[in-house]
Design the sequence.
């Protein structure tokens, strides 16, 4: 029995978002270009930001939460000398501009202090919720609320160059990290204030600009640029379902060793379940590998088999 993969319009589209439109605007363009209603992205870019926006199409929307867990890489420009209400160029200055006299060594030291696992205070204008409302909603109402710090991981914060009051940096970080907040905190550490004036995401969840299609070319290039489901989450180990396993998946049953090739001897957190032609059929989590948890099996938590 051959499995039926997800419809041809299912997959992942990497879009090079331009400055101006919102991430939701780009999603709407993809919907129109592909004629598919089920479309969503895996991580918002602010309107002034550019770069990699990973868009899930069709059944790939069911994988969005897993793709959103991947690390991000950004190129950014920080302006030193004053902070703003939004931590970026769209906000109002929080004080007069200071003269900027700093060398690259001091910059690199301040950036190094902002790497590792941090407790990051989110920007006032952000989507974090306090008292059931988004912070940006409260800020627009003029309400000052305490912003609880959130744990984030900054794997690398590299200073690429310094010219006048502008610092070029590259950041590799966990999802949920605000580069705007890093710009603010870098300025604070230097005693100068700082804010973000440009941001470009160059990688997200394993996808890069080399795979991206421009937003203005979606009408003509989106279909050809759509990556199939088997091209995503390739860092997860895989098993191959045989006819018995495919039949079980169709009925929502757990996969026993006799239903797959390459059944694991020891469990990983999650597996891709593939058809014999490489199509992605499901994601599954191991069960029963502990002595008191029944026989070993792979329990599907996302099933992508077409009807």
Sequence:
């Amino acid at each position: 029995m051959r499995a039926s993969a997800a419809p041809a319009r299912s997959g992942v589209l990497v879009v090079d978002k331009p400055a101006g439109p919102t991430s939701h605007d780009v999603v709407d363009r993809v919907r129109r270009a592909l004629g598919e209603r089920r479309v969503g992205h895996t991580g918002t870019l602010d309107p002034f930001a550019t770069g990699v926006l990973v868009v899930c199409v069709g059944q790939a929307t069911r994988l969005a939460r897993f793709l959103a867990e991947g690390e991000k890489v950004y190129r950014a420009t920080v302006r030193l000398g004053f902070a703003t209400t939004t931590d970026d160029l769209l906000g109002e200055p929080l004080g007069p501009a200071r003269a900027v006299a700093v060398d690259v060594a001091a910059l690199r030291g301040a950036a190094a202090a902002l790497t590792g696992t941090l407790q990051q205070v989110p920007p006032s204008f952000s989507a974090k919720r306090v008292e059931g409302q988004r912070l940006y909603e409260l800020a627009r109402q003029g309400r000052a609320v305490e912003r609880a710090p959130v744990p984030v991981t900054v794997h690398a914060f590299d200073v690429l160059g310094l010219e006048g009051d502008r610092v070029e940096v590259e950041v590799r970080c966990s999802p949920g990290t605000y580069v705007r907040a890093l710009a603010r905190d870098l300025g604070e550490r230097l005693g100068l204030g700082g804010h973000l004036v440009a941001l470009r995401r160059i990688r997200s969840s394993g996808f890069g600009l080399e795979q991206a299609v421009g937003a203005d070319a979606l009408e003509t290039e989106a279909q050809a640029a759509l990556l199939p489901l088997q091209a995503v989450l390739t860092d997860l180990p895989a098993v191959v379902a045989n006819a018995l396993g495919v039949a079980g998946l169709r009925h929502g049953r757990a996969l026993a060793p006799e239903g797959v090739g390459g059944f694991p001897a020891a469990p990983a957190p999650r597996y891709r379940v593939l058809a014999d032609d490489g199509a992605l059929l499901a994601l599954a989590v191991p069960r029963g590998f502990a002595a008191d948890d029944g026989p070993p099996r792979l329990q599907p938590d996302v099933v992508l088999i077409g009807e």
